[in-house]
Amino acid sequence: MPRLELEQLLHLCQERGWDAGVRCFLEPKSLGSADFWARYFIPESRAAGRLLLPANSSARVLDLGCGIGPLSINFARYFDEVVGVDHGFTQLQLLRLRAQQAGIGNLRLVCAGDRRYLPFPAEQFDIVLLNGVLEWVGTRNFGNPRLQQRDFLREVNRILKPEGEIYLGIENRFALRYLLGGADEHTKLRFITLLPRKLADLLSVIKKGELYRVYTYSRWGYRRLLREAAFQAVRFYLPRSNYRKITQILEGEKNSASAEAYCEKPRLREIKRRTLKALAYPYLTHSYSIVAGKFRLSPSFVEEAVAKLEAWLGTDVQASLKLRPFRVKIGETSVALISIAGKRGARGFMLRIPLTPQVAVQQLHNLQSLRKLVGRLDPSCTLKELLPQPVVTLDCSGKPVFVERLCPGFDLRHCYHLQDQPAVFRLGLDFLLSLNRELGEHRTHSAAAVEAWLRERELYVYRTAPDFPEGSLQRLIKDAINSLHRAPLPVVCTHGDFWPGNLLTTARGERLTGVVDWEFADQEGMPLLDLLQLLLVTKGLSSGKGFTRSLAERFSARRFEDDEKLLIDEYCRELGVSDLSVWSLVFMAWLEWHYRRANVHGYLPSWRRNEVDGFLESSGELRCATV
Question: Whole-prediction pTM value?
Answer without folding.
Answer: 0.85
